[in-house]
User: Fold this.
Amino acid sequence: RLCASYADQCVTVQQIGTRCSGFNGAKTQKDEKYLGRHGDVIEILYGKYPYKIEFNPPPANKWREPLNEKKRSCFESDEEIEESPLTKKSKKDYCLGKMFREEVKDTNDDVDEETSRTILEKVRGRGESPVAGGSKIEVDEPVDDSSSQVHSESWEEVDKQALMIYTAEGVQSRSKVAAYDMDRTLITTQSGNVFPKDTNDWKILYPEVPGKLKKLHADGYKIVIFTNQGGLGLGKSKPSDFKKKIEKVVKKIGVPIQ
Assistant:
């Protein structure tokens, strides 16, 4: 979960699921929050898919010190942590909590790594990556939410349905975004199986989910959901059925979502 504040020129990073992300070369810990600044590097999965945080325009106050010169005061020891194969930072660094040192195996991939990389490259576009093999997260100046266009319901498709984007009616461009994974974060299966039996095998994971998202929307956040669906690529489910499922999930939550 990433929450950007343009006023404070920082991004709060929080691991929601069980699999570790990376923050400046270190593993994150579930439910701990980390304070990201301009130039910090986030890995969507630890050691994979690095993104560099960049504010546009860059912060005028360059207060932050080089990554390995001084640790933030939130840490209690000088113990080194496991290095990331991508960013190679040897010390614990900028965060709001302790780093997690336990190895987490990648056992829940719904889409193979090559397919994930291909789709990520298409989303990134042709811009030059600021991190080897990675991309960047840009935080632009706030927009006037009150005058933002209100979108109609629509579906967009990229590269023969390798990427599908649903925009619910009422979605607006906003300066703040609250983004979540869908499966086992917002919804789970009715059957209790790890993977759904069909497109109707789902339910809201927690009763509090719709209310929390409605409050975030009322507080000025645009709500965004991401999901990998390996069954589509393997031909086990139809795109038309998947679209119907997404539309039903959004309707059940009761808030404009993209």
User: Anything to note?
Assistant: The domain at 151-257 is CATH 3.40.50.1000 (Rossmann fold).
